[in-house]
Amino acid sequence: MPLGGPRAMRVRRTLPHRDLRMVGAWCFVDSYGPTDLGGGPGMQVPPHPHIGLQTVSWLLDGEILHQDSLGNARLVRPGQLNLMTAGGGIAHSEQTPAEHSPVLHGVQLWIAQPERDRNGPATSSSTPTCRCSPRTAAASP
């Protein structure tokens, strides 16, 4: 499916599928790329709302500018995790910044929040770059 419109990036949705709707709290597992950004705009997902979900975004290559209704604007890079908890509601956008790497490749995991947290506060945060980036993890014995 296209991410951000018909001329945007393609996303592979591993979960759900016809035979499996969820695995525990995991309701979507998406991956995109590796995509050569030389011939297009990259990721251009306009502002849209979420409720009752948590998303974990992990980049293998490239950069994404995350902006949200809490006033956050952060550039997410490989080795960082971007965590967004929707709770009772949050709106956000994800876009390839004007200055970017030639390739974009990442994974996004979607978690259904438990009923007790579905109307809680929205939060958004990012981890600093961890010592174990996706590339070094793959190379470790």
UniProtKB/TrEMBL annotation:
<dbReference type="InterPro" id="IPR012093">
    <property type="entry name" value="Pirin"/>
</dbReference>
<comment type="similarity">
    <text>Belongs to the pirin family.</text>
</comment>
<dbReference type="InterPro" id="IPR003829">
    <property type="entry name" value="Pirin_N_dom"/>
</dbReference>
<dbReference type="InterPro" id="IPR014710">
    <property type="entry name" value="RmlC-like_jellyroll"/>
</dbReference>
<feature type="region of interest" description="Disordered">
    <location>
        <begin position="115"/>
        <end position="141"/>
    </location>
</feature>
<feature type="compositionally biased region" description="Low complexity">
    <location>
        <begin position="123"/>
        <end position="141"/>
    </location>
</feature>
<protein>
    <recommendedName>
        <fullName>Pirin N-terminal domain-containing protein</fullName>
    </recommendedName>
</protein>
<feature type="domain" description="Pirin N-terminal">
    <location>
        <begin position="9"/>
        <end position="111"/>
    </location>
</feature>
<dbReference type="InterPro" id="IPR011051">
    <property type="entry name" value="RmlC_Cupin_sf"/>
</dbReference>
<dbReference type="Pfam" id="PF02678">
    <property type="entry name" value="Pirin"/>
</dbReference>
